[in-house]
């Protein structure tokens, strides 16, 4: 497997892989048909905090999902790498304190695409939780983290990989969701202008 990110990409929209400074413009221009098969956040014992899978053929039941997560954690919690192949999937991951973040895609998906999604997920959670990326903080704001996942990916299709824009849209969707005071302060701070105009309408 080529770890340089030059592996074959399914070119659904006949566009080329974004590079360098073009990344942000690429993601903000329009949604793409680059896809992921799942995203998960596990604690440091391998227990699920939050997970979303977008292909029912891969893991049709919750039991199948949990078995995959257990196997995934056992192969990554002591490893220093950022990527492994497991059950035909490319799994990109990173850890922080007592959490492990994972993004899974098919083996032919470009690793740079998957890495950009992982970084967006982690950075979005970090901004929402005021850089307090720990199990307890995530559990206290689970609804908001779930919204962030939904803003990044819809049905497996990658919508956005820019954490700032993800957090701004999450802030606009949280009017009717009870949040902790710190989370409210952080989320609203990220979209102050957008919220001000929406309240004036």
From TrEMBL:
It is found in: Cytoplasm; Golgi apparatus membrane; Cytoplasmic vesicle, COPI-coated vesicle membrane. Gene3D superfamilies: 3.30.450.60. Pfam families: Clat_adaptor_s. Residues 1-19 have a biased composition (Polar residues). One of its GO terms (biological process) is intracellular protein transport. Residues 1-24 are annotated as: Disordered. It comes from the Eukaryota. Residues 36-173 form the AP complex mu/sigma subunit domain. Keywords: Cytoplasm, Cytoplasmic vesicle, ER-Golgi transport, Golgi apparatus, Membrane, Protein transport, Transport. It is a peripheral membrane protein. One of its GO terms (cellular component) is Golgi membrane. Oligomeric complex that consists of at least the alpha, beta, beta', gamma, delta, epsilon and zeta subunits. Belongs to the adaptor complexes small subunit family. The coatomer is a cytosolic protein complex that binds to dilysine motifs and reversibly associates with Golgi non-clathrin-coated vesicles, which further mediate biosynthetic protein transport from the ER, via the Golgi up to the trans Golgi network. Coatomer complex is required for budding from Golgi membranes, and is essential for the retrograde Golgi-to-ER transport of dilysine-tagged proteins. The zeta subunit may be involved in regulating the coat assembly and, hence, the rate of biosynthetic protein transport due to its association-dissociation properties with the coatomer complex. This is Coatomer subunit zeta. It comes from Ceratina calcarata. The gene is LOC108627791.
